[in-house]
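Rotation project, supervised by the postdoc (A.L.). Task for the rotation student: set up a whole-complex structure prediction and record inputs and outputs verbatim in this book. Inputs entered:
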Amino acid sequence: MSAAKRVQQWATFARSWHIFDCKWQDPYESANIIKKYLMGLHKPIYHPMNDCGDVVVCINSRDIALRGDEWRKRAYFHHTGYPGGASWTLAWELHNKDPTMIIKKAVYRAMKGNLQRRHTMQRLFIYPGENVPEDVLQNVTNQIRQIRLVPTRLDQIPEEVTKTYPKVMDYPEDYVLK
Amino acid sequence: MVFLTVANWVRSRGPDEFWRKRRIFRLAAHYIGRRRNCYSVAVRNVHRALVYATKARKLKKQDMIDLWSTRITAACEQHNITAYTLKEGLDRANILLDRKSLSDLACWEPRTFECLAAVAKEKMNLDGATDYADKQHPTGVNLKFKDVMLEAWLKEKKQ
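Outputs recorded:
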């Protein structure tokens, strides 16, 4: 091996594809994580002027979770440009219209406003459910860790497991279960 | 550092108007429109540009520091260690590398950086100062510290 090729690293600038499951995740917190992968901030070769960002595929964007009563309180502003053209859409209304829009706007806002931002956004794919086109899914090589653990609901656990699970207490004899 | 020459040169009032203006027009040569052709507009813009240039000498250094920090944070994430633990661990192990050298190593010699991260973590573990954010997956588990005689050196107390 020649001295010049001793430290050669193949595919350093290759674009890799990541998948992120938005289920029960806060879109504004996950936007910071997604942004990191889109811009290439997770690579030690990062430079604002080298094109080292990756592609991120977001699935289950319909199942995102907003904090508190943000579904009712958060408003998205739009102005058509004409007089009286301002409109405020509540988060739940926007989510009903397009389940991908909230996560898209969250990622867009997490990034600094410059000429590169719109091109970086092109590398973000968002799907409302789990149905991802085959040609997108076959490129994916990495899964981004979710911020919050998605807990298993009681009705999703099989009955044999819940029956055999050790009890903390028994209900009193005269206790009426609803 | 104060560059008195430039300031004097800009503000100097020569005896000949042509040459005085010519100095300004030379600095405005790459501007567009009236900014390069009319003296009264050009001189304002040249002065402003020189102020920007003065400020930018500091900003450029700060930009480089930010870039190095970003790169080090990215490299640390790959080894499941926080940038703070890396810095603190290396300091305690008496490896005094600055951010520039660390980011160069992270970029060009990832294996060297991996070892540095492992050393930093090992030192922090020996000192009993474990950062709970790093606990998930230890880095450099297949590195044999005993083979390279690091142990005595690692166990040195910080000066």
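Student's summary: The CA atoms of residues 133 and 158 of chain B lie 23 Å apart.
Supervisor addendum: Helices of chain B lie at 4-11, 17-27, 34-37, 39-78, 83-92, 99-108, 110-126, 151-154.
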